[in-house]
Design goal:
With 211 residues, the chain is an alpha/beta fold. Helices cover 37% and strands 15% of the residues. It contains nine helices and nine strands. A hairpin with a 5-residue loop joins strand 3 and strand 4. Helix 2 runs parallel beside helix 7, helix 7 runs antiparallel to helix 8 and helix 8 packs antiparallel against helix 9.
Length: 211
């Protein structure tokens, strides 16, 4: 056995995190998530309906790195679906909900916030998982069958799927970090307290941990 070669072997690179982007993308909902994943060494790649630029609710233009039909679960560590007006006004984003199903079926996690939770409800992905969203009746309007699994809390993770409402971007990020092992224990708690509660004492915990 060549133990020297084994010791010198390069670590297996992380697979990218894929952020879905589309017209009316809700800018504020995934900033904490993607920024701190990137700071922790994760590559973020954007996925659009095609490769054409999309425009966010805030008027920012984003050039997707790849089109949805090029995305494969086995090439990803996480699919992030953000809110957008289009989730409630058309069927344009339904292919992203179907992609979420493919990811979960392949054992690759998905994180959905705001209107994306309604898209997953329509796809049937919340029928048998604990979940949350903006309010229960928002999801009930989709006609889904998972109302008994709805939880009135900031964010929920169940069997590889994170859900959160539009006013909980920090809790959404917390669940993603926990799921991917970015932060754990008191460091994860301190990160959440700093950004959600403006708890100055939490900063010292993060600084000590080198985060």
């Amino acid at each position: 056995m060549n133990t020297t070669a084994d010791a010198d072997a390069s670590p297996v690179p992380r697979k990218p995190v894929h952020l879905a982007v589309y017209d009316t993308f809700a800018d504020w909902e995934t900033g904490h998530t993607t920024a701190y994943l990137a700071r922790a060494g994760h590559t973020i790649r954007t996925v659009g309906p095609g490769r054409e630029p999309v425009t966010t609710i805030g008027g920012l233009r984003i050039q997707p790195d790849l089109a949805l039909d090029e995305l494969r679960p086995e090439d990803s560590s996480l699919l992030v679906l953000t809110g957008a007006d289009l989730w409630d006004t058309s069927e344009d984003l339904a292919p992203f909900a179907r992609a979420a199903r493919a990811f979960l079926d392949a054992g690759v996690p998905v994180a959905a916030i705001c209107g994306a939770t309604a898209g997953l409800a329509r796809e049937g992905l919340l029928d048998d998982r604990d979940h949350t969203s903006a309010v229960s009746f928002y999801l009930a309007a989709t006609g889904y069958r998972g109302g008994e699994r709805y939880t009135a809390t900031d964010a929920v993770t169940d069997r590889g799927l994170v859900t959160a409402g539009p006013t909980e971007p920090v809790a959404f990020a917390r669940e993603v970090f926990r799921l991917l092992g970015v932060y754990e224990g008191e460091v994860l708690d301190a990160w959440y307290r700093l950004f959600h509660d403006s708890d100055a004492e939490a900063y010292a915990v993060l600084e000590k941990a080198g985060r």
